[in-house]
């Protein structure tokens, strides 16, 4: 069960992923051991799943696309298994709402449309809705 201290630790990690355990302990007002043990517990319970690097892909000549996917219900799991195998798919989300799933795709600008076409070619993908990232306003 997550408590208020866990939320403070998660918030601190999210606000400053480079903060050391010592810095978090000092700012939250608990020992380094408490922080370390709580982080281990949060990872074991898969509440905190790894960590990520923030990259400005456009500065490297790459495009970022959030790709909404409409998928035939009877092929849903098979499509997700296929999509997640592509190296250019960095994240894949099962969603409710406008789309069955959303893939976060990063690829060289010259190849991005071909990569999207590969996903569109998977049996069971009914339609895709690409949203190209042009600028990051808040992360």
Order of strands in the sheet with the most strands?
2-3-1-4
State the secondary-structure class.
alpha+beta
Distance linking N and C termini: 27 Å
From the 3D structure, determine the CATH topology of the largest domain.
Answer: Alpha-Beta Plaits
* CATH architectural grouping of the largest domain: 2-Layer Sandwich
The helix content is 25-40%
Segments where pLDDT lies below 50 for 5+ residues? none
Can you identify the CATH class of the largest domain?
Answer: Alpha Beta
Specify the overall morphology: elongated
Order of helices and strands: HHHEHEEHE
**How many beta-strand elements?**
4
**The named CATH superfamily of the largest domain:** Lrp/AsnC effector binding domain/regulation of amino acid metabolism (RAM) domain
Number of domains: 2
Describe this entry's structure for a reader:
This protein is of the alpha+beta class and about 140 residues long. It is about 35% helix and about 25% strand. It has a 4-stranded antiparallel β-sheet with strand order 2-3-1-4. The two termini are about 25 Å apart. It folds into 2 domains: about 5-45, Arc Repressor Mutant, subunit A, CATH 1.10.10; about 55-130, Alpha-Beta Plaits, CATH 3.30.70. It is built from 5 helices and 4 strands, in the order αααβαββαβ. β2 and β3 form a beta hairpin.
